[in-house]
Amino acid sequence: MTIHGKAWKFGADVDTDAIIPARYLNTSDPAELAKHCMEDADPEFATKVKIGDVIVADKNFGCGSSREHAPIAIKAAGVGCIIAKSYARIFYRNAFNIGLLIFESPEAADGIKDGDEVSVDPGQGLIKNLTRGEEYRATPVPEFMQQIIAAGGLIDYVSERLKK
Amino acid sequence: MPMTITEKILAAHAGAEAVEPGQLVNVKVDLALGNDITAPVAIREFERIGVETVWDRDRVVLVPDHFVPNKDIKSAEQAQMLREFARKHNLTNYFEVGRMGIEHCLLPEQGLVGPGDLIIGADSHTCTYGGLGAFSTGVGSTDLAAAMALGETWLKVPESIKFVYHGALPRWVSGKDLILYTIGQIGVDGALYMAMEFTGPAIEGLSMDGRLTMANMAVEAGAKNGIVPPDEITRRYVEGRAKRPYTFYNSDPDARYTKVYEFDVSKLEPQVAFPHLPENTRPVSEAGNVTIHQVVIGSCTNGRMEDLREAATVLKGHKVNDNIRLIVIPGTQDIYLQAMQEGIVEQFIKAGAAVSTPTCGPCLGGYMGILAKGERSLATTNRNFVGRMGDPESEVYLCNPAVAAASAVLGRIAAPWEVE
Ligand code: SF4
Prior knowledge:
Helix content of chain A: 25-40%
Order of helices and strands of chain A: EHHHEHEHEHEEEHH
Strand order of the largest sheet of chain A: 4-3-2-1-5-6-7
Strand content of chain B: 15-25%
Number of strands of chain A: 7
Shape of chain A: globular
Largest sheet of chain A: 7 strands, mixed
Mean pLDDT of chain A: 93
Low-confidence stretches of chain B: none
Structural class of chain B: alpha/beta
Bound molecules: iron/sulfur cluster
Number of helices of chain A: 8
Structural class of chain A: alpha/beta
Oligomer: heterodimer
Largest interface: A-B, 39 and 51 residues
Largest sheet of chain B: 5 strands, parallel
Distance between the termini of chain B: 53 Å
Mean pLDDT of chain B: 97
Radius of gyration of chain B: 20 Å
Strand order of the largest sheet of chain B: 15-14-13-16-17
Strand content of chain A: 15-25%
């Protein structure tokens, strides 16, 4: 599976209140959350984002609260993956646990500009910038995380373990 | 092998002699926590796992605190999910409205967390319990669901940064100022994925309330956990209160740190964090003329007894400024009651403040003090992100309770000594 879409660029320290403001946390319905995804960072994002598009950001993406609603909103909005220089640690965990692909690549985060056409090969950790003809490498996903993704997320991983 | 306090707690819970930074470990948890925002997602995931019941009914703790007393129909439904789950699984530690408090004020107070514990909670400020010498960290709802079933979780052993605070704290300077100052120095990702260990003479002299405040905001520097080595102050706090046995761990003298910061805090001033990041700190005397509309005293950072007392001391003999709404939110029912018995609640009300039942409320822009476009709030809370307390075009400034009270009197960001 290759991810292919347009890049939406954001800055450093994008926090979970910007990704999904607390005023919408009285629900955990993914479709409802997706409608307000990134609202306080870019009010037009949720209506304009297309399936397979990619969020590209600077350092410390997803800082702030532990709300899993943040990666859920992004996934439900159709975003194919996130590429950032680094992630806040709870966001990083949550993204894997719910099966949202995220990549760490400072090169790609600098090289990709807003609106560039990007394709990502998750298996190889290879990111291609089709607009600029550039390629970047992402940090390989730790093996343990790969097992979680292979099982279909943490919950399936745990149920499999409990069955053994 | 020499180890830090964080490494020792993780090793003990992994059943290992020793652990090293970077190692992935499977650990037993002593307590797993959820609230009315994160637990509904966790409960749904838990039910997918297909186990009959939670791993230990005494150790899964549910606290509805963010949107309760229910602010609207949807939040009522979320609170209802917690209540029904707690009944179904016969949980010992479910705290209903009227008995509850803000989770991170409540758990230490009720003796549910103690030194040497390993605690995970589906709330980023779970790191608060590091003030007691515990390893505690925030996780997501799915992690909580897995822990509710297994009583275990996986963690990566963090590298540790040691902070040494030299000197005695000046009057009006508190744990809040130490942590704001620290975040100002290292930035909001200055301790990303790491453990922050708080030590030195200023910490040894710091009350438990102050230590909890410091550990609480470790996550604002990106840290996995913040921790204060336990001592006599810790012992006095947990004795007679802890509901489970506890263990005092301490870092070995030759333990390894990624970095060591040394700060002389003997001349530190109260700090104010300007919008829109907790790292934008300045000493209060350099805040300039910032007029404000609302002041909030409360939250898991500064809603404890000592915080209310400090604010009341500053407020004594004064009235809340005509242009200010002062909202005071005691962190738990016990704190509320104690503040009433000490006459502090009466004093707040007579000064013109609104005093609320415990809730997170405005801290996360939930309810009970939401800001309109263009409004500014000074708050003793922990985050001042864009839109955190209301409209995306409102602003939040962070400070300690004494600065908050002085500012409520003067209608602008002010130092406590300006109202004496
Ligand atoms: S008081 Fe604020 S920071 Fe603390 S748990 Fe509640 S919402 Fe989170």
